[in-house]
Write a sequence for this structure.
């Protein structure tokens, strides 16, 4: 059985995510993200950063998250989910394995809650209550916006 060793995996298992716009991979890698409708999948992927260093400097900068929508990816392929954080203006999307362990998550502080997942073929479109749309490769085990090479 795989141990949850990365900070993001531990946070997810506690029902929390960091309060920093970012894409987080269960391997421990993290990148700043910016909502940009012109970018592949609706997100501009910026610099990589250390989530461990971020949390060491700001241990209280986490939020409780509530997955409100979930869709199964193929037969036995895991799940996509989305929802909201505890502050109201936040939203997140995530990809889970078949045991519902985190593969990756994207957190956005000002997107408002993500309320729907439109899963078609190999892509998933997440939409927030304020109209922010993020489109991803639905089967990717690592975060990858749809249309990103």
């Amino acid at each position: 059985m795989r141990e949850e060793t990365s900070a993001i995996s531990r946070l997810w298992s506690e029902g929390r995510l960091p309060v920093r716009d970012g894409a987080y991979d269960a391997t421990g890698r993290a990148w700043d993200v910016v909502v940009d409708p012109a970018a592949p999948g609706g997100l501009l992927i910026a610099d990589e950063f250390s989530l461990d260093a971020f949390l060491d400097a700001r241990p209280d900068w986490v939020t409780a998250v509530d997955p409100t929508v979930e869709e199964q990816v193929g037969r036995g392929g895991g799940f996509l989910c989305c929802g909201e954080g505890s502050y109201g203006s936040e939203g997140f999307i995530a990809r889970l394995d078949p045991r519902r362990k985190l593969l990756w998550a994207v957190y956005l502080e000002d997107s408002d809650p993500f309320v729907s997942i439109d899963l078609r073929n190999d892509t998933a479109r997440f939409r927030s209550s304020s109209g922010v749309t993020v489109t991803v490769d639905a089967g990717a085990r690592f975060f990858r916006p749809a249309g990103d090479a």
